[in-house]
Design a protein that fits this description.
It contains 7 helices and 2 strands, in the order H-E-H-H-H-E-H-H-H. It has 154 residues and is mainly α. It has one domain. Helix 5 crosses helix 7.
């Protein structure tokens, strides 16, 4: 069962928050990718999986990077002028959660190729958001919404 915030199109988020979170995620995943097969990578992947999970399953307000952004960074910035619905970034967090969970399966089964590929995909998506403001998970959410909300043709 999804939470009301995920379904409510009126709930919006300052677009700078998810982009800030993506920048931190880029650093975490880049270090993970460079240190695969070490305790550092495993620890960072567990942390990032929890971060994605909190954002996807509890809400963006529970996501640690978002909490830091709202408490420390946002008060030092000009008031937000652009907002987006909360559902697409939550879906993006779910996609990130799935990729990092798969990466952890690779870590714990010793299949490094799975870890490399899963982390690389998550890193690429986070980089697109952090560097260019292009949220791949958000775009997938919107595409899915368009595809699955079309009436069936007879």
């Amino acid at each position: 069962m999804s939470s009301p915030a995920l379904c409510d199109p009126q709930v919006e988020v300052d677009i700078r928050g998810p982009r800030f979170s993506a920048a931190i995620t880029v650093v975490v995943l880049a270090v993970s990718l460079l240190t695969v097969d070490t305790a550092v990578a495993t620890t960072l992947l567990i942390i990032q999986t929890v971060v994605f999970g909190l954002g996807a399953f509890i809400g963006l307000k529970a996501q640690p990077y978002g909490i830091f952004f709202r408490a420390v960074v946002q008060p030092r910035l000009a008031p937000a002028t652009q907002f987006e619905a909360i559902a697409p970034p939550r879906f993006a967090a779910l996609v990130g959660f799935m990729f990092t969970a798969v990466a952890l399966v690779g870590v714990f089964t010793g299949v490094d190729a799975v870890t490399y590929v899963a982390v690389a995909f998550a890193l690429a998506a986070a980089f697109l958001n952090a560097a260019f403001g292009f949220c791949l998970g958000c775009e997938l959410f919107l595409l899915g919404k368009r595809v699955f909300s079309r009436p069936a043709r007879v």
